[in-house]
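Thread: "does anyone have the structure for this chain?"

Original post by V.I.:
We have the sequence but no experimental structure in hand. Need at least a predicted one for the grant figures.
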Amino acid sequence: MLLLWAASLPLQAGEQPGPGRPGATLKLVSFPYPPLMLVDAGHAPAGPMVELVARVFERMGQPVQLEIVPLARALLQMETGSADAMFTVKKTPERMAAYLFSSEPILQQDYVFFTLRDTPLPFRGDLAALAGTSIGVVGGTSYGPRFDAAVKQGQLRRLEVSSSHESSFRKLLAGRMQALICSRVVGLAILQQLQAEARVKVSGPVVDTTQSYLMFNRRTVSPQLAAHFDRALQAIRQEELAVSRK
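Reply from O.Q.:
Generated one for you, tokens below.
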């Protein structure tokens, strides 16, 4: 668990402390998503998304406590109100009705299909071509509007649900399904971790390019704090852009 006492650090010029719950530490949850969110026993959570979110709350002067847990548990903590915010999360109509979201995305990623090297996949952009294909997914995960709509419409009928992306890749390697869908960067990182890069390939074009956000609990976080998060994130990105242009 990572505790970031951002409120004890100096604020950036023009920034004010977050208006959510004055003086209160916000509990953030995330989930293992290498290489973007990493957790190892005995070590603090790490990864680019952890670092970015920590920087934003530090700039806001808002203390936060971060716990990385399995995806299903993170979603349950948001549902029960025991967590104040979660990242990285895609917007869906159901989630937008239940939660507050940052307006600014914190992550953009391409979703692709992975197959064993010797497994052909009849996908050239039309998801209907995969009606008879067994496809690995992680429960509770959105893979973008195209894939999610194909599932809801019954076009993809053979979904193999796993509790994590690593578990899904292990099933693929064991021959328990023909393909799985995953973020390209995350999938390649998991294959490297499993030392299986030579056995698995990206198959076909990009399914969808999605954006992910910080999702806030409406019961414990104010719209003003969510807007403050957006302003702080925008300021950090503008500063990074200015540095890159020098």
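V.I.: this helps a lot. The longest strand covers residues 200-216.
O.Q.: and Helices lie at 48-60, 71-80, 93-98, 145-152, 165-173, 184-193, 223-244.
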